[in-house]
UniProtKB/TrEMBL annotation:
Component of the exocyst complex involved in the docking of exocytic vesicles with fusion sites on the plasma membrane during regulated or polarized secretion. Involved in polarized cell growth and organ morphogenesis. During cytokinesis, involved in cell plate initiation, cell plate maturation and formation of new primary cell wall. This is Exocyst complex component. Keywords: Coiled coil, Cytoplasm, Exocytosis, Transport. Residues 51-220 form the Exocyst complex component EXOC6/Sec15 N-terminal domain. The keyword Repeat does not apply. It comes from Linum tenue. Belongs to the SEC15 family. PANTHER family: EXOCYST COMPLEX COMPONENT 6, SEC15.
Amino acid sequence: MDPKPKRRAVVENGDTGEDLVLATLIGNGEDLGPIVRHAFEMGRPEALLQQLKTVVKKKEVEIEDLCKSHYEEFILAVDELRGVLVDAEELKGELASDNLKLQDVGNSLLIKLEELLESYSIKKNVTEGIKMSKSCVQVLELCVKCNNHMTDGNFYPALKTVDLVEKNYLKNIPVRSLKLAVEKTIPVIKTHVEKKVTSQVNEWLVHVRSSAKTIGQTAISHSASARQRDEEMLERQRRAEEQNVSGLGDFAFTLDVEEIDEDSVLQFDLAPLYRAHHVHACLGIRDQFRDYYYRNRVLQLNSDLQISYGQPFIESYQTYLAQIAGYFIVEDRVLRTASGVLSSDQVETMWETAVNKVTYLLDDQFNHTDSATHLLLVKDYVTLLAETLRQYGYDTSQILEALDKGREKYHDLLLGECREQIVGALGNDTYEQMVMKKESDYENNVLVFQLQTSEIMPAFPYVAPFSSMVPDTCRIVRSFIKGSVDYLSYGLHTNIYSLVMKYLDRLLIDVLNEVVLSAIHSSTIGVSQAMQIAANTSVLERACDFFLRHAAQLCGIPARSVERPQSSLTAKVILKTSRDAAYLELLTLVNTKLEEFMALTDNIQWTTEETPQNGNEYINEVVIYLDTLLSTAQQILPLDALYKVGCGALEHISNSIVGAFLSDIVKRFNANAVLSLNYDLKMLENFADERFHSTGLSEIYKGGSFRECLVEARQLINLLSSSQPENFMNPVIRERNYNTLDYKKVATICEKFKDSADSIFGSLSNRNAKQSAKKRSMEVLKKRLKDFN
């Protein structure tokens, strides 16, 4: 045993330092990885391997030494292990016995376990089955709910149910057959719902089109009522203002505004449209429904815009326009409440189509209409249509422009109708003063047209200065003003007063004045008719102020604004000219009549030898005629016209007297003829003075008189009766006494003046001496006039 330890020492002494380090690391159980990695990196794995082998040999020696040193202990341990082996065998037998017993007991438990596991499996399957059944039941319940909605026609809830099934349940349906059935049924339901709601929309489209006329008529009637209320309010306001301005008291008026909710008044059902819109939205085809609705409504509009030419437009225009109004009221409601069904651009396009058609139709119908009343009826309804639709936001200016284009045609027709009426009024006129037996007649024919000349109510029966033609014409003009205002109201023009004045001037100038002038220049009228026409024309001229005030009243213009001078009618001046023409025609007829009465060349004995004691017989008829003429003129003509008539008649008489002396028929005359004409002239002068004062003209024309109208005849008679006619050539005397006489006329007349020859006793009488002196003076005048000429 000793040699072995020596070997160990040799080996130990032969260890290197690296071997010791490696052995230490291995003994400590440390990681040799870094050393191995280092050896390979250095390229010396063989050295490391050698060192490891050395360490292994060293460990084997240590083990061998350990075994030798504990040999006895090892033997004891082996013996103990043999004892343990015996005990183990005994234990093994016991374990086998216990195992048999355990197996006997475990077999029954195993059977129970298998039964339990089977029960757990069944439970799991039942649970899954219940879960699947619940899922299927939920789907089926939704299907039943959907079917109920379909049966009740509640398509929107039905689609919402289908959408719920499709999104939340369809993918999770455990039963394949049920899943396939549901997948197959969903498109069928959607198609069915689409067809049903489309059918309902079609029915609604038919219904709403048939209801459009009623809707439009109702809305237009509300606009008409509102317009009437506004007009009544304005009329009350105007009267209150006029009374206030007149100083009759302070008046207060209130503006009652009645709020009307058009949507509550115009009831029509849009539920089918809303429902269809929602249904198509749920189906994801909203745009398709919008296009469908828009196309169908455009087709309906085009159909509504077509007019039947088998029926007169005047009989169908209200229905036609009400249908259009109802159509766009419905579209406005759809645009505002059925969000997304219509766009504002689509409504605007439809409105433009309707406006173009309506304006074209109005132009065409206005061109073919020959009744102003029909045009006014159409215009009124069209303005109500425009006013109604303007409340719903539609631009109606183009329609109003079409009406404005027709105003000339309307007024031409209205002027034509008024011309016929005025011609009829003059044709039916008796040219006699109207006699009004009671106050109501006076009010209806005088006061209503403000033709009174005094604020005091006259005694009845009252004889008016005009004939029945005047109030008849005033009524015609008043109706014309009303018709003109009615047409121009509620149109494009806010201030229609100037237009009404323009057309009123046309009526009074182009119609009334022409008719009056035609009557004046008619060959069938006499003096009384001419005088009555002149009186009527004067009254009509005065009535122009009433026409102006009436037009202003209807136009809502304050009365004070028409009282300005610049606001008068041109027709007033024209009628004044026509009145003057009537006066001239009257004077012409009067002069003709006077010539018939006078006929001086036949009624005067120009060379009589008898000295007259008074005037000629014809002068009595002339004075009676003049008295009748001026009495009638005083009753019906203004004082200025009376003055013109009197002056014209007397001037004509004066000219007739002078003309008689100048007539070729009168070859010569003597002093007796001059003396008889002097008597006639004095009678006329007395009549002229009496009439000038009795008629009140002397208070107005203080610087003149009727006598002055006879001055030429008087100066001629005075000259022929003068004892010294040669004084005519004296400028001072001629300017004072003979300023109206013409040299040539006097020369011609004096040449015809041949006084009677002296009797055989004439030279003895004083008178003959005077006659001789006068004759010599006349001869001197004749000679001097010849020299002057």
